[in-house]
Design brief:
This protein has 132 residues and is mostly helical. The protein has helices at 9-24, 46-58, 77-86, 109-120; strands at residues 28-30, 67-69. A two-stranded parallel sheet has the order 1-2.
Length: 132
Amino acid sequence: IPSTYVPFRNGCILSVAASWGEALGARRIYIGAVESDRVGYPDCRHEFLESMTRSINLGTRPDADLEVRAPLVRLAKSEIVRRGSELRVPFELTWSCYSSEREACGRCESCRLRLEAFAQAGLVDPISYRRR
């Protein structure tokens, strides 16, 4: 389990989203979980997300009928970067580093995975990194 692990983080986020979703009459909750993270983050698994849909529907009004959708869950991070580039995602506004707030460290697991994904996608990550 990596040092960046937060116990049941996605479960907490989805629970809050379900509460708001039911109150607002939403039908879907989208989450950007990626299954390749499952080794260190069990709440990124497809099975977990499916079980959250069942649990949410057991714990909300019968007519709430909320569905958790994770469109990225089975993609490799490089595929996500490639698709994001096609969609013109402003990657310069995104952040992955767990060790720094001003300039990404380039060394923590999250930075390494991000840099690897950009390299595999054949793209340059637009955020600044400290010297590695």
